[in-house]
Amino acid sequence: LAAVDRTALAAVLPAIKRDLLLSDTQLGLLTGIAFSAFYALFGLPLAGWADRRNRRNLLCFAVLFWSLATAATGLARGFVQLASARMLVAVGEAGGVPAAHSLLSELTPVNRRPMIFAVHSAAAPLGALIGLAGVGILADLFDWRTSFFALGLAGLPVLGLVALWLPEPRQMAIPAAD
User: Fold this and answer.
1) Each residue of 134-159: pLDDT tens digit?
2) 3-state secondary structure of 95
3) I need a surface site. Which of 40, 63, 69, 87 has the fewest CB within 10 A?
4) How far is residue 55's CA from residue 100's CA, in Å, rounded to a whole number?
5) Closest alpha carbon to 95 in 38, 142, 143, 42
6) According to DSSP H, which parts of 22-78 are helical?
7) Under DSSP, is residue 103 helix (H, G, I), strand (E, B) or coil?
């Protein structure tokens, strides 16, 4: 889901450029530094959260945050608003990977971890494909703004699944006797 939201912008850049009268430099900033700098900057403290606190809650927060920011992308009326929305998507997504990796490590038997991480890693290019093709199709049917609203809404069922059914192993652990 994160890869879908991350790559979707690239599929509709020409429409956004026309609609918001953006330059190629602005488009480059949107698809480069506006996302990657915030992803890197927030990745470290959010990974620290995953090390010390409830990872399921971090994952819920991350999915909610990047989904709302993705939907907010469709509300942008200019470069600053669009860049801000993309930066917020990056912040949310920066919390998803450390929480997911930590949970996958703890919830998966050691002998199955290579397969689980392979599947998790394979999801990124699949998500990119869906993001590029899916948003392109939605934008053709509706417009680029509606595409981002739909993507943002798509995160809500995932959030519900994570919140309701994903365990936090640290809460299930039995404290050691003194």
Assistant:
1) 999 999 999 999 999 999 999 999 99
2) helix
3) 40
4) 8
5) 42
6) 24-31, 33-52, 55-73
7) helix
Q: State the helix-helix crossing angle for 13-20 and 79-107, rounded to 10 degrees.
A: 150
pTM of the full predicted structure?
Answer: 0.90
Coil, strand, or helix at residue 177?
coil
Beta-carbon neighbour count of residue 141 at 10 Å?
9
**Is the Cβ–Cβ distance between 152 and 136 less than 8 Å?**
no
Place of tokens 């069922």: 157
Rounded Cα–Cα distance for residues 178 and 170 (Å): 18
Q: What is the pLDDT of residues 61-112, one digit of tens each?
A: 999 999 999 999 999 999 999 999 999 999 999 999 999 999 999 999 999 9
Placement of tokens 């409830």 in the chain: 54
Q: Residue 162 corresponds to which tokens in the numbers above?
A: 């994570």
State both tokens at 55: 């990872």
**One-letter amino acid identity for 91?**
V
What is the rounded CA–CA span in Å between residue 14 and residue 92?
Answer: 25
Those residues whose C-beta lies under 8 Å from the C-beta of residue 99, and which sit 6 or more positions away, are 46, 49, 50, 55, 56, 58, 59, 62
CA distances from 132 to 84, 93, 150 (A): 21, 17, 14
